[in-house]
Amino acid sequence: MINRKEFIKFINSLRLKELSQESVISYTQPILEKDYKSLVADLINNHEISFYWSQPNESFSFFGYKEFFSFPLDNSISKNKSLGDLSRRFYSNIPQRSKHPLFIGGIKFPSSKNDLMWKNFNSEKWFMPKTLLLKINDEYSITFNFSPIIFNLDDTDDIVASLTSDLKFNSERMNDSEPELSIKNPLDSEILNWSNQIDNALKKISDGRLSKVVLARYKDLQFIERQNIFSLLQRLEENFENCYMFAYRNGDSVFLGASPEKLFKISDGYIETDALAGSISRGISVEEDENFTAELLCSNKNIAEHKSVVDFFLKQLTPVTEKILFDSQPSIKKYRNIQHLYAQIRAKLKQDTNLFSLLELLHPTPAVCGTPKSEALKTINDLEDFDRGMYAGVLGWFNLENEGEFIVGIRSALLKEGFLRAFAGCGIVEGSESLSEFNETELKLRPILSLFTNETINKS
User: Fold this and answer.
1) How many CB atoms lie within 10 A of CB 334?
2) What are the pLDDT digits (tens) for 372-382?
3) Fewer Cβ neighbours under 10 Å: the N or C end of the chain?
């Protein structure tokens, strides 16, 4: 697996005796496509902490396996200082690490509940993996992150064996088929409970305490066989290539999905983000689809919902940027089963702005929470009877060059051995109707539930 000649050349270029024990050494080399796919497919089913990310339409994906160490979780200033300290003791054989993830992980939605089903996930965690598999266009590579302590081993063979010892293949047979599970139509009591939640939210909006709140619900499935995570992700990639595919695993828990929503991306001193809110289904025919598009563009309710997200980003970004460019009118972004109002926002970051402060400023957005944020959070915690956990939280990556990309964990589910809980939410504003919003959540549940039903759900 490791090119010994290149590895020894890199090691010999380091002044090992001058390195502190806190130094981080990172060695990267090319690998074959078949090795990349084989390793990801096998390792992702192990019960080790791991993180998978894929953007099929950009031909970019990576898989981080096992934890080398975690990033300290203090305030944004302290985190940024720690990142700067690390950059001075980080040694890599790649001089230019653009779009090369170093830390990966995520942040939970700030729920007041604490459900045991999310016990394997911290409220916030960013970790450097021991091994990172990376695909950029048609190039594949593997990175090993390790400590100088490894050089206490006797010889190169022992060092190489130590670095590759984690790459053990999973011999357990997984279920690669698409199980035909029966998903029952919603019960009357479920719809009634949802209607009561919407009525309570609309009363707060009418009283002026809220302008928008995002409420969510879930569906549960039971399985007999253990599911092959990589097969599930491949099916998502085939169906939703313009989304972000992800699978964040720790132990027997896997949070996975196909999110259409970018929280923000930082590159070359600029921040890019998307305002994605307001939705309608796709049409069966081209004519029906265009009619739905026209309806969405003329919907006062959806336009108001989308505007609240745009206004939020502009307000939060103004103090930390020099100039903001944004679409003054929303366009349409279409996915396989749904279409959204959409606007791009791009801004030049002020020099002292770091990604941690941006995460604090922008998470959670009105697209998954509401406005004003504090009252929306209180309403969500009062009305929802479950812990969102990683659902509507943040997932992403960053490196030492102040580059990174983060998404919102929607169109997602938590998979724990033979149990799956899929989540969906919708924005409640003045003029919202409970049945229409319920149907919207049913629509948003389809990307995940279709993995297990061959897309036969909710057809009756």
Assistant:
1) 14
2) 999 999 999 99
3) C
